[in-house]
Structures are given as C-alpha cells and as structure tokens.
Amino acid sequence: MRTSAISVSGLRKAYGSKTVLEGIDFDVAAGSVFSLLGPDGAGKTTTIDVLTTLLRADAGTVRVAGHDVATEPGRVRAVIGAMGRSAAVDELLSGRGNLRRMADLKGVRSDSRVVGRLLERFDLVESADSLAATYSAGMRRKLDLAMTLVGDPQVIFLDEPTTGLDPRGRRTVWGIVRELVAEGTTIFLTTRYLEEADQLADQVAVLDRGRLAARGTPEELKRRIPGTHVRFRFADLFELDAAARVLAGSVRQDEELTLRVPSDGESKSLLALLGRLDAHAINAREFSVHTPDLDDVFRADATAFTDRRAQEASVTLTG
Ligand SMILES: Nc1ncnc2c1ncn2[C@@H]1O[C@H](COP(=O)(O)OP(=O)(O)OP(=O)(O)O)[C@@H](O)[C@H]1O
C-alpha cells in the first residue's frame, strides 16, 4: 500500500459564525493526483490554505508529508510547493529573475541550470529576460507554476491552475502535472473544469456545504450517475407530453423541454426510439446520445443540494 502524502481528519474551519468546513476527512496517496471540486464558495481555497499552513484550522488533524501543519508548519513548508489563484509573479522582474528570487526564498541554491531547465520545461526560454509585466496571462501562469516547482517539492498544491488558459496552455499544464506524478510528486488540485479532474485525477472529492458529498475515482463517481441515455428536445410542452407518454422510463425536464431516455446508445436502439416517436407523429427538435461524465456527477450533487435547500425552506415556511 502507498503511504499517505496528505492525511486530513475532522478538519473544521469557520470564519466568525460562518462555518465553511464541517469536519472533513480524506487521504491522498503519495505520487497521486487528488482533485477537490465544489461550487463557488464551497471552501476549496480555505482547505488549500489550511493544508499549506496559511490558515489555522479550528479543529482536526492535517498531516502533509508526515508533518503536522499546526505543530510543524516550517517542515511542511519546506516540502511543499503551492500555486494560488493570485500569481506570485513579480512583474518588475524577468522570468529568470522571478525563478532566482523563488530559489532564494526557498533557500535553494540558485543554480543557473535549475532555472534554465525550468525555463525550458515551460517554454519560456525566449522571454526569460523580459519583464514579467510584458508576459501574456498564459505565460505568467506558466512562470508561476515553474516557480512552484523550484526546490523539487514532494507535494504540490494547485488552486485552479488552468483557469483562463487557452487549450494549448492547459495541455502544457496537464502534461507537466503528469510528468510530476510520474516522478513521484503528489498533486492536490482544485479545478472548475471537470474534464480536467477527469483527465488528471486518481481520486476526486466533491465539497458541498462544508462536507465531502462524494469521493472516489472519476470512474466510480460516474458510475453513481444513471448510465448512457438519449436526450430529446422538443419544440413545446405539448410534444414533450406526448413523447413522455410514448417513451417508457423517460425522465422529463420541463424547463428545458427535454426528455432523457435510458438507452445503450446503439443504432438499433436509436432507430427503435425514433420509430416509436414517428409512429405517433411526434417530432423531436434534436437528440443526442449522452454518456455520463463528471459534469453529470457535479450537476447531480448540485441538484441534491438545491433539493435540500428547497426542503429546508419548506420546513421553515411550514414549521
Ligand atoms: N477571510 C474570510 N473571512 C470571511 N469569510 C471568508 C473568508 N475567506 C473565505 N470566506 C468565505 O468562506 C466561504 C468559502 O470560501 P473559499 O474561498 O474557501 O471557497 P472556494 O470553494 O475556494 O470558492 P471560489 O471558487 O468561489 O473561490 C465563502 O463563502 C467565502 O465567502
């Protein structure tokens, strides 16, 4: 069994009377990618801030690379790299200057080969001596990530590392994350792109109202969601009603004028469905075959969240 690079137990954090983390537990195996997902304001950044020693938890135990963040913050800081949402890049220094400054800050000998290798790895050689102020958003993000890697940290925290990057920049970051993991580094990642978690993460956890609502491999989470289905969209409620009567086992979403019908998605099954609609002179505006992805997991959790809110509201109203 692999050792834990991050181990979190009973983590609680409140800002004044607002509780953000209500006691969360998880483990991240060394040399793996763990992705924390959650709607805006769910507490992802708060979690990262506690794990990286920037913020003190109210309760619980957090160990990173075997060190307790509350009692050994210095040891934790010595073995981690963290890239937050606001860039650590100094605009008045060049790319090379920023990397050198980071090496000094981390007490790593500012070996020009180390800096040179990072500039190469991130495709920043040509602009290495230009001021970071002249860099594009993507270049700045790459420089920020390069700075995170100075000193070869064992555990790397990336808070939305590809938000705002174009597809090429995103692929570069993904490639680097994969290389780091292959070298044995552990990555803790928050992202708003579910495809990113699907592509990179060994384990995913969904944070919802202070608790971990779902946890598992991307595959396991996707299996929790109803399987492949065909989605039909109709011109109006009249057609939707008629189709819902004809297609057994379908689930309607009135607002979107859509109907989901479980199906294996094979052409024979599609022809049978279309044939049944046609036999009743029902026309679908469009249809698509849909296999579950992490987006569905996320939406299902968000729906559960909204449902609970609605239940609570009705309890309050009637209570
Ligand atoms: N210093 C603070 N004081 C008071 N409330 C805070 C503070 N920092 C965060 N919060 C609140 O705590 C909640 C969780 O914030 P956090 O930034 O951890 O969420 P997040 O999941 O990272 O969301 P987002 O992606 O929107 O940044 C939010 O409601 C936020 O308003």
From TrEMBL:
Location(s), subcellular: Cell membrane
Membrane association type: Peripheral membrane protein
Top-rank taxon, per record: Bacteria
UniProt keyword terms in alphabetical order: Antibiotic resistance, ATP-binding, Nucleotide-binding, Transport
One GO MF term attached to the UniProt entry: ATP binding
SMART domains documented for this protein: AAA
UniProt-listed PANTHER family: ABC TRANSPORTER ATP-BINDING PROTEIN (PTHR42711), DOXORUBICIN RESISTANCE ATP-BINDING PROTEIN DRRA (PTHR42711:SF19)
Protein name, per record: ATP-binding cassette domain-containing protein
Top-level taxonomy: Bacteria, Bacillati, Actinomycetota, Actinomycetes, Kitasatosporales
